[in-house]
Amino acid sequence: MEEYAPRGSRLGPKERYRCPPKCRTVWQHSGKASRRHENERAPDKSGPAGMNLKEYRKKRNFDATPEPPGREAAEGQEPLSFVVHKHLASHLHFDLRLELDGVLKSWALPKEPSLDPAEKKLAIMVEEHPFDYRTFEGVIPEGNYGAGTVMIWDRGNYHAVGHAMRRETEEALRQGLGRGHISFVLNGQRLKGEFALVKLKRAEDNNWLLIKKSDAFAHTGGIPHADTSVASGLTMEEIAMDASDPASTAVHGQNHGRESSRHNETEEQRKRRGKLLAINDVKVDLTNLDKVLWPEEGYTKGDMIAYYRSIAPFILPYLQDRPESLHRHPDGVAAPGFFQKNVDHTVPGWVETLAVHSVSKGNDVTYLLCQDEATLVYMANLGCIEINPWHARAGRLDTPDYMVLDLDPLDIPFDEVVRVALVTHDVLVEIGAAGFCKTSGATGLHVYVPLGARYSHDQATQLARLVNSLVHGRLPRTTSIERDPEKRRGKVYLDFLQNGYGQTLAAPYCLRPRKGAPVSTPLMWEEVRDSLDPTRFTIETMMARLRKVGDLWKDVLGPGIDMEQCVSRLDDMMRQ
Asked: Which numeric CATH code is attached to 285-389?
């Protein structure tokens, strides 16, 4: 156990502080979550952050409360965090906490936050809380400051309006706090979009107003199904009951590097840890969250589920209404995996499926449809690392939304793949077709052309064949249109057959079952150059990238090209 004591204290080096049995706090170390049921006093740090926690520490006896005594966050590059606590103390209220300068700036809200711009919520600025507090959920015992039940009602990351980068956000927020007006964008599980905190000019007690701005996330009528924790899936009553059970624990996000001070905990109890996760109006059963799927890196199934939860708003538009081919690796990436199309096991009633007739098999195949975050988590819990959606959607399976050009290298340097992608882009520009590039998450690149579901799979295949023929004509030494691997070694295979009915490719933003936990990542064309390193897009780096560049893939689902015009231009070019 690490031992800490405040500066100037008279505590001996062997004096340690243990958290009461009710402690359910998750501590973050180096970006990996670990559970400690021992309370540790951190030393006061010099500088503003350490000074700002004096009031927080003064109000609490850390021998008697499971709340974290205070650790300031180290300066990092990842997006800033926020959390909203629901707190039943002397009265029920909510606490909005925004990470800034290593601590959590905090406001107490007498009423539940809202997505309705017409509802202006009173927000009283209170003492700053330590960075560790963002993962605290549990019961503060009677006799302590703020005694009562605390729930993680919402959490996520945020940035200042007009400032995607962390440092720019921090500077904008510091200035805004000084002026009494800050504007920020929340990316939480319940609160999303632009908000403002405005200080009341004549207020002497730090009274502010929390105001939702009118945007795509604004709506009236309250937030449905908001009575459970986004971390544990428990209600306030269940948290209170759970805290009184010395054998109970909870899952909060990632589970990498977990520790437990309960040496008598059984294996069955460990497997049950965090079994139910509430997402909106459904509860998802989770199992074996500590199982390591990437043995070299140590990433667990819990880490993978946490990734897909964070990425859900970005990946779901490319999964919804599409039959899914699940690439499952229940024993991790070092063991053989398998593809599953037919959902031959019993799925929960809230999971949507689609029966598609298979001509080759002569029967119907029941595919899973990933319509929401709960289903995405359900798939991840099956060990589905990689998700492969159809190019077409339910109701119009004969007309794909896009055409794909799969650049598949075999024993050839990656910079040659980049060169092929750039020539492909040149050809598309010349025929008037938009093209979007992403890493495959493995060794190749994918180029997508939006079709707007206006053409057949055969038409998409023929257009892809024509484009690839032109590219091959310009790069005959490094490309091949031969399907036989033995005939295309040392070349980039230009695969146009991926456009057939029922064909799939790894979805944008999905993980791949390979070393390093890489992600199939949409790119800007200016990134497609010799220095491109696809291995830097991983489970660890993707959210920070998305905070910086946003979703580069959204226009793939746009109205699409004029194929007749493109084919006409191709004919002209091939005659030359």
From this structure: 3.90.920.10
Q: Which residues pair with 34 in a beta bridge?
A: 27
User: Rounded to an integer, what distance in angstroms lies between the CA atom of residue 56 and that of residue 70?
Assistant: 8
pLDDT in tens, 105-114: 999 999 999 9
Nearest to 297 by CA among 532, 54, 535: 535
Interval 395-423: pLDDT, tens: 999 999 999 999 999 999 999 999 999 99
**Looking at 43-47, 65-69, 410-414, which range is the least confident one?**
43-47
Query: In this structure, how many other beta carbons lie within 10 angstroms of the beta carbon of residue 335?
Result: 11
Residues of the chain with CATH 3.90.920.10: 285-389, 402-575
According to the CATH classification, is domain 402-575 in 3.30.70.890?
A: no
Residue of 108, 98, 225 lying closest to 173 (CA atoms): 98
CA dist., res. 322 & res. 396, Å (int): 10
Give the pLDDT confidence of 474-519 residue by residue, as tens digits. 999 999 998 888 888 999 999 999 999 999 999 999 999 999 999 9
Beta partners for 185? 159, 194
Asked whether the beta carbons of 133 and 57 are under 8 A apart, the reply is: no
